[in-house]
Amino acid sequence: MNxxxxxxxxxxxxxxxxxxxxxxxxxxxxxxxxxxxFWLGIIGPSATWAMRFLARELDVFPNGYCLDLNDTAxxxxxxxxxxxxxxxxxxxxxxxxxxxxxxxxxxxxxxRVPSVTKRQLLRLPTTLQHSHSQLFAAS
Length: 139
Hints:
Layout: E1 12-17, H1 21-26, E2 28-29, H2 33-43, H3 45-60, E3 65-68, H4 69-76, H5 86-96, E4 100-103, E5 106-109, E6 112-113, H6 118-121, H7 126-138
Parallel strand pairs: 1-5
Antiparallel strand pairs: 1-3, 2-6, 4-5
Helix pairs in contact: 2-3, 3-5
């Protein structure tokens, strides 16, 4: 999936599902415990909430939806500033880690996310590294 930057000069953007056959089978629910336990420490709370918000709306609108960035920012306690606000930074952080893809007027959002990489895992506390090892040893 392409990761060009979105054009945030408009306060509306279209959101669709990022269909990834491999991750859709082997990945984890965006709104599930895995994201909260392991991805949160990697991407931070604002990006985690933004990603979950975007994915949850796809449950209601599976063919995609038009997102009002001002309303979304307010709902998440963030700011939208046509490219420089905390919502835009949260979305960009998700894109940096391959959890959303940015196209000029569209965001493609994963409903299932891949596991964190070994390198990302090393940024987490030892207890979480151990929990992650146990999770994958059991599967």
